[in-house]
Design brief:
The chain has twelve helices and three strands; from the N terminus they run H-H-E-E-E-H-H-H-H-H-H-H-H-H-H. By secondary structure, it is mainly alpha-helical. The longest helix is centred in the last third of the chain and has 36 residues. The N and C termini lie far apart (40 Å). The model has no long low-confidence stretch (mean pLDDT 82).
């Protein structure tokens, strides 16, 4: 499909979403958009090139043909992204510019006020370049996770399923099931690409030595960097009130289920590699929670840590039953998802 036609269809989709109430569904960024600086345009161009590179690597290793996927940025400021289906061979992933600019600014602010978000960064408080590099790398990891989440909706057949088979009776729980699956698959992709770059030496070749040593200089630092990026991003979404009734009307799984579910999947994927299989990942996760919460507190993040702790406590009480509910729905829709999946087959549910 011609790129101009794709962009036209995307803008129509965003206009429709805005009309339906999503006021942050704004038009695509154009190359001549004067509301953005030259630096911001350059930043978006580099991000798009990196995401396209990730997509090409996925295409190169895929079983079967990957459909055409167009990547674009919209003017939305919220941390949102969309995956869109035009037909079985043409898709788009649209990411709000807030996922690029706002995330990096927030992480840079966190590192400035609480350097120990990253291992030993406090020793480098007089080297702002190191903090800037670390903020950029963490925000890139967040953007990669967002991209892989939307890519998972496409490749795992979610969009085709919703178009062909989803019924309105279980609409919310089906959406939550698909979102939980996309989260898990995104973590698998993110960990896989990170480890590939780590083992092949590409990470070390592209990052200044001081920043590389801080972020990836040991197994535990590698784990911490990826989990910290995941934690920061999903922590921002802690806005829903988790009760037995409220979680059934959410379009996404409860925040705490997503947050700790992703950390758990990341830990499992990392532990499959002998280089880090003996490291006690629960210690790393505990340090991440403590350090990130302290950083959020210092930058005046809207949701206070105490509110977060109470919200997590409430959500954890609902985890077992709701996880079983999502697992049951996934098992029910698995045959159709497996049929509609692009590139190979889905793993059989292990429930």
């Amino acid at each position: 499909m011609d790129n101009s036609l794709i962009r036209e269809q995307i803008n129509r989709y965003l206009e429709s979403a805005n009309y339906r109430g999503n006021k942050d569904a704004l038009p695509l960024v154009e190359d001549n958009d004067t509301s953005l600086t030259h630096f911001q345009h350059d930043m978006l161009s580099k991000c798009k090139a990196r995401l396209n590179s990730l997509l090409q690597k996925k295409i190169a290793t895929a079983v079967g043909k990957v459909p055409d996927i167009y990547i674009a940025f919209s003017k939305g400021e919220l941390l949102q992204a969309h995956s869109m289906l035009f037909d079985d061979e043409n898709y788009a992933i649209v990411i709000n510019i807030g996922c690029v600019f706002a995330i990096q600014n927030m992480i840079a602010d966190m590192l400035y006020h609480h350097p120990n978000v990253i291992w030993d960064l406090e020793q480098h408080t007089q080297i702002p370049e190191t903090q800037q590099v670390c903020a950029a790398i963490l925000s890139n990891a967040v953007l990669d996770f967002i991209f892989f989440h939307e890519l998972s909706h496409i490749l795992n057949g979610h969009l085709r399923y919703k178009k062909e088979l989803a019924t309105r009776s279980n609409d919310k729980i089906i959406k939550q099931t698909l979102e939980f699956d996309a989260d898990s698959q995104a973590i698998v992709y993110l960990v896989g690409t990170t480890l590939d770059a780590y083992f092949t030496g590409r990470l070390k070749a592209t990052i200044p030595e001081s920043s590389y040593n801080l972020l990836f200089g040991s197994s535990e630092r590698l784990i911490s960097t990826i989990q910290t990026a995941i934690y920061i991003f999903l922590r921002i979404y802690i806005i829903d009130d988790n009760t037995e009734d409220s979680i059934m009307v959410l379009s996404h799984p409860p925040f705490a289920m997503r947050l700790f579910g992703c950390l758990d999947v990341a830990a499992q994927k990392f532990s499959m590699h002998s280089i880090i299989s003996d490291y006690p990942i629960e210690i790393t996760t505990g340090n991440i929670v403590k350090n990130v919460e302290q950083a959020f507190l210092k930058i005046g993040f809207p949701i206070e840590t105490q509110d977060f702790v109470e919200a997590v406590k409430n959500a954890l009480e609902l985890f077992p039953a709701h996880h079983d509910r999502i697992s049951k729905h996934y098992a029910e829709i698995y045959p159709d998802l497996n049929r509609l999946k692009h590139c190979g087959k889905l793993a059989v549910p292990q429930f």
